[in-house]
Amino acid sequence: QVQLVESGGGLVQAGGSLRLSCTASVSVYAMGWFRQAPGKERDFVAAIDYNGDKTNYGDSVKGRFTISRNNANKVVYLQMNTLTPEDTAVYYCAASHKSARMNEGDIAYWGQGTQVTVSS
Questions:
Q1: 99 pLDDT exceeds 90?
Q2: Burial level of 44, CB count in 10 A (0-12/13-18/19+)?
Q3: pLDDT one-digit tens code per residue, 18-37
Q4: Tens of pLDDT along 32-62?
Q5: Where are the beta strands (DSSP E) in 1-120?
Q6: Which among 103, 102, 119, 117 is positioned nearest to 20, based on CA atoms?
Q7: How far is CA 17 from the centre of its chain?
């Protein structure tokens, strides 16, 4: 069983930045992030393939968020810049054996989630 442990969430003011980290117990081909705001469905945020050659982003975060990974340490990062209150959500790390074009049906493993709150 692969374990994913997120860290780096917290409270930040609008316009600020945060970096989330997700450490995996073993390397998985594609890793990424989803988020779920209160009362809303879980949405895709970003994903990256094993070599970092392919990345994908949700429309609402393109140009503001950057995903990267360090395979030696089995860590995937999500650098979040220019945060807005609409980015407030629980952010979940996800891993897939298939593709960086993630959808929830492809996810084999989930982290427990980390809260990101952006104040106005």
A1: no
A2: buried
A3: 999 999 999 899 999 999 99
A4: 999 999 999 999 999 999 999 999 999 999 9
A5: 4-7, 10-13, 18-24, 30-36, 42-48, 55-57, 65-70, 75-80, 89-96, 109-110, 114-119
A6: 117
A7: 14
